[in-house]
Amino acid sequence: MGKIANIKLEKTETPFKRPFHVTNSVQTVATNITCKITLDNGVVGLGEASPSFRVNGEVVNSLLAMEGFLNDFLKGLDVSRYRAIFEKTSKLLSAPSLRAGIEFAILDAYSKELGIKPYKLLGGSETKLETDKTVSIGSLEERLEEAKEIIDEGFRIMKVKVGEDLKEDIEAMTEIAKLKSGMRFIIDANMGYTPKEAVFFIKEMYRQGIDVAIFEQPVRFDDFEGLKYVRFHSDFPVAADESIKTPYDALRLIKEEAVDFFNIKIMKSGISHAITISEIAKAKNIGLMIGAMAETSTGITQSVHLALGLGGFKYFDLDTIFLLDEKEFKGDFIIEKPFYRVE
User: Any idea which residues carry the catalytic annotation?
Assistant: First the structure.
């Protein structure tokens, strides 16, 4: 099998169709890094890193500067022994998104050598998933406009960003929920609430009969006690997002009985740690969701193949391809809104 001959990192910029607003953060452009690995037999594997300073403390130019180091670190390694390579890449703790892009590029190259899809290399558990689509923070009118578009496009699960203004968030959810009966909601506060605010909010959702599938990251990433407080006072499942990046985080969240779901994002954990976290969750009966940062179709491919390969994921927040103004679809999956297929 082929050995790594060259690693190339290239910055890309893709505008959002409309400003993407989450708690204390507004993005108009997604800046990502294409990871290209060429083997000594000419096979090319592709991955993508979607750096996040807010979540990981990553800086794009610092990651790009690692190109020479990565070539020295990984050149000559046989991609058929990808788990051995992952033992090396898992040590790159300060660059999880770059780790994800490199690790998937390795899997992509090896899959091409074998003539199979990456999800089969990862286990081939499932072939189809259903994604949600997101309403970002904005005025009530803007939120309702986005929600109506999502309904018209046929999505059955809607993710709604909250966390900056409790009163406005409740008003927005009240009005959005009136638009269509039977819609399920993932409500993501992105660390915006105090524990008591979060409980007040979720109790109001229950009182109004709004079907909340998951209440995601209501409090600060390091407030494990706050997460537990919300979980034990919520009528709906609570998920960790920013609080879970490593297998150690998973074990601690389980030990403290802090959440019902893990939202795994490979840009926080890399492929290697994401696999470990998913197995920990399955062993302890924690629900699984998979999400994204600001990936293009190249990057979303990675999460699609990981989730379908491993299996066991209940919710999928892989909608950034609909939020970005990407001129050319480069994903290795088929879109049939709201579903993705790999065969």
Answer: 161, 265
